[in-house]
Design brief:
Helix content: 40-55%
Number of strands: 14
CATH superfamily of the largest domain: Response regulator
Distance between the termini: 24 Å
CATH class of the largest domain: Alpha Beta
Largest sheet: 5 strands, parallel
Number of helices: 8
Bound molecules: calcium ion
CATH architecture of the largest domain: 3-Layer(aba) Sandwich
Length: about 230
C-alpha cells in the first residue's frame, strides 16, 4: 500500500509540480488548494486508510494553515511538515513547538523535502512501534539501551546531563528539536528560557563527539530554532 500524502498548497503551479514529483516517488497524493478542501479530503480519507503525512502551506485563501496544524495534532497524530514562504524565525519556533514535525522555507530542493518526509514518517512510526535506541553515524555509535557512546571504537564518557541531552536528540534524529523542547525535556518545564545551558552542553557534546567542535557535522545548529542531530545511518 502506498503512503498517502495530503498536500495543502494554494499555488497552483507548485501544487502540480509537487504532486507529480511525489507520485513519481510512489506516494498517493491528495491535493488541496484551501483549508476547506483539506478538511474535506481528510474527512473522506479517514474511511480509506487515512492520510499518512501532511505538507502544509501557511498562507491559504480561506485562513492560516496553522489552524489545521492544531486540529491535526489534537486528532490522530499525523506528521505535519510546514512548507511556507515565511522566513522569520518566530512563527517557525511557534509551529514546531505546536507540534509540526519540520519546517521548510520555499523554495526548497525536492530531495530535502523527501528526506524530511522520510524522517517524519519513520519517527512517527517508531515512536508508536518501537523506541529509537540506536544511532550510528560514521565512527560514532550510540546505544541508549546499553547507555553506551563510542567513537572510533573507544568509549566516550558523558556526564548524566550530556547523555540525557544526546538521548533526546537521538530520539528525534534528523529532525530539528527546538530550544524550548530540549530545555523542557532535559532540565524541566521551568528551565525553558535557560538557552545558555544548551550552548554550554552542546559545546561539551561537540568536543566529545565531533572531529572538529568548531565545525560540527553531527550536532547541527538551526539558527534561532534549536538543534538537529543528523540522521542515523542505521
Ligand atoms: Ca500560499
Amino acid at each position: 500500500m502506498s503512503l498517502c500524502v495530503l498536500l495543502v498548497e494554494d499555488d497552483r503551479e507548485l501544487r502540480a509540480t509537487l504532486s507529480e514529483a511525489l507520485r513519481v516517488e510512489g506516494y498517493y497524493v491528495l491535493a488541496a488548494a484551501s483549508l476547506a478542501d483539506a478538511r474535506a479530503l481528510l474527512a473522506n480519507a479517514g474511511a480509506n486508510g487515512g492520510v499518512h503525512i501532511v505538507l502544509l502551506d501557511l498562507g491559504l485563501p480561506d485562513g492560516d494553515g496553522e489552524s489545521l496544524l492544531v486540529a491535526l495534532r489534537q486528532g490522530r497524530g499525523i506528521p505535519v511538515i510546514v512548507i511556507s514562504a515565511r522566513e522569520t524565525e518566530d512563527p517557525k519556533i511557534r509551529l514546531l513547538d505546536a507540534g509540526a514535525d519540520d519546517y521548510l522555507v520555499k523554495p526548497f530542493p525536492l530531495g530535502e523535502l523527501l528526506a524530511r518526509m522520510r524522517v517524519a514518517l519513520r519517527h512517527r512510526g517508531t515512536a508508536t512501534e518501537r523506541a529509537v535506541t540506536r544511532y550510528t553515524q560514521g565512527d560514532l555509535l550510540i546505544d541508549l539501551r546499553a547507555h553506551r557512546v563510542q567513537r572510533g571504537g573507544e568509549d566516550v564518557h558523558l556526564t548524566p546531563t550530556e547523555f540525557k541531552l544526546l538521548a533526546r536528540l537521538v530520539r528525534s534524529a534528523g529532525q530539528v528539536v527546538t530550544h524550548r523542547q530540549l530545555l523542557a525535556d532535559v532540565w524541566g518545564a521551568e528551565f525553558t528560557e535557560h538557552t545558555h545551558y544548551l550552548r554550554l552542553y552542546m559545546g561539551q557534546l561537540r568536543a566529545k563527539l565531533e572531529a572538529d567542535a568548531a565545525d560540527p557535522r553531527r550536532l547541527l545548529t538551526e539558527p534561532g530554532l534549536g538543534y538537529r542531530l543528523v540522521e542515523s545511518e542505521d
